[in-house]
Amino acid sequence: MAASEAKSEAAPAAAKPNKTKLIVIVAAALALLGGGGGAAAYFMLGKKEPAEVADADEQAEEPADKAAKDVVKKKKKKRTGAPVFVELDMFTANLRDTEADRFIQMKLVAEVKDAAAGEMLKTMMPAVRNEVLLLLGSKEAKDVATREGKERLAGEIVAAANKTLEGTPAAGGVQSVNFTHIIVQ
Q1: Do 18 and 105 belong to one domain?
Q2: pLDDT of 114-127, one tens digit each?
Q3: Which of 5, 28, 70, 78 is most buried by a 10 A CB count?
């Protein structure tokens, strides 16, 4: 009996060092994973360009590209209220490609600054459609093949829509457009 009592007392004593070892190993593993995750985020997000380089790039850009980038910057700003969306009709236009007959088909939703701007956009829809169709007809398939090309196109569509709204109470009312459907063939 004394031997079995000695074994039962030795078992908890032996289990305790293993438990602390396990805790130390788990804590070290978590620290390594956290440090690795932080390092990965640092390298993946990268460093920002110096302000001088970014300003020089913006001055060298065409006005349409600058307007498109401004719209993307505005879109990234925080919203203060609930957004107002206006669904636009389907757009289909021939592209300017010379090697083949190509077309683009897209459906858009415009984000406007308020409900009044949304109503004015609906009222001015024939003129807005005209501007957007003229813009789409000036593009080639390669212009809208990449994400950056689509973002640039979205900025140009916003500029075209706002051009139509100039002189109305909703001037500058279109803040961004979102693609809900886009096909290039």
Answers
A1: no
A2: 999 999 999 999 99
A3: 70
